[in-house]
Amino acid sequence: MRIAVLTSGGVDSSVALRLLEEQDHQVTAFYLKIWLDQSTAHLGQASCPWEEDLEHIRNVCREAYIDFEVLSMGKAYYEKVVEETITEVRAGRTPNPDVFCNNRIKFGLFLNQITGFDQVATGHYAQTRKVHGKTHLVATPDAVKDQTYFLAGIPSHKLETVVFPIGHLMKPQVRQLARVYNLSNQSRKDSQGICFLGKLKYSDFLKHYLGVRPGIFLEEETNQKLGVHQGFWFYTPGQRHGIGLGGGPWYVVRKNPEEDIVYISRRYQEVIRRNFLITDCNWFSGEPPVTDTLEVKLRHGPFRHRCKLRNSEVILESQDQGIAEGQIAVFYDQDLCLGSGRIIHQSEAKNSSPQKTSDCL
């Protein structure tokens, strides 16, 4: 097959590229250049590794005689990922920029504009499986590295032409293959954090775009003023670090963006938080799941909650103190990823109306 392979300069995508080449596919490597374009150049503080990325990719491709192209997508990335992130944060929500990137850039714009290829491949830790004629994501054996959380918003019909060559492997196995192939980046560390920031801190990114706007910390239980913060957008529910007040530990409970209030508590861990509502759902089967073994992830990582889904309400069997508007909830039945939804507000708000989220039905 003719396969377009999205490469990042890291070990995972490089091994994926070599695996496909070794299987006699006709592969072309693509690098999406978002560094130092409109999205980050004017920050001035960003230390971006794109030149190092390109050096590694060129070495890998040169050694295996693989064609390589660089696509500049800074403007589109800024409009579809960075601006949306800023809008969500300004509204008091907790977005996931990497989910935006996968949905709108890698498996959106890139997938739509690539022609002449049978498939698109990436180095994500994910797998796919056909279930009743619909393509689903499947979790990988490496629960820590599994990236289905970031991919669960991609429509099923787009996954039909996507392959994940390393999805069946554990990270140590990928590292071993990198040594076997003698890749120049075999010892390169895994990238951490949000894809467009480089070494720039997320808080510095927010400060650049949103500035500072002093507001007050109020104790949740007493409504007593405890201190001053520099902007509600620097905080998210469940956050403990960075509050800077004595007498803690203090936890962020909720925010009031209109009045620049951040509510905090020392008793946050005692409050039961098991319910929330979702919208903008993407179900790979086309229908909400019906299973007695439903689980949900509220963030990347191996941990899942057992849960129930009632219309648009998610009911956890165990509490989670980090439920926040704007986060993505991703659902599983054992290793099968069923789809995702976006958290719109915690359902302990007495006036919540599931009818407003009928798009998840």
Give an account of the 3D structure.
There is one protein chain. The chain is an alpha/beta fold and 361 residues long. It has 8 helices and 17 strands. The chain folds into 3 domains: 2-123 and 165-180, HUPs (Rossmann fold); 217-270, Roll (SH3 type barrels), CATH 2.30.30; 275-360, Translation factors (Elongation Factor Tu (Ef-tu), domain 3). It has helices at 11-22, 50-64, 74-90, 97-113, 148-151, 156-159, 171-180, 202-210, and strands spanning 2-6, 26-33, 67-72, 119-121, 127-131, 134-138, 162-163, 215-219, 225-229, 251-256, 261-265, 275-283, 294-297, 305-310, 313-316, 328-333, 336-346. The strands form 3 sheets. Strands 12-15-14-13-16-17 form a 6-stranded antiparallel barrel. Strands 3-2-1-4-7 form a 5-stranded parallel β-sheet, covered by helices on one side. The protein has a 4-stranded mixed β-sheet with strand order 9-8-11-10, with no helix packed on it.
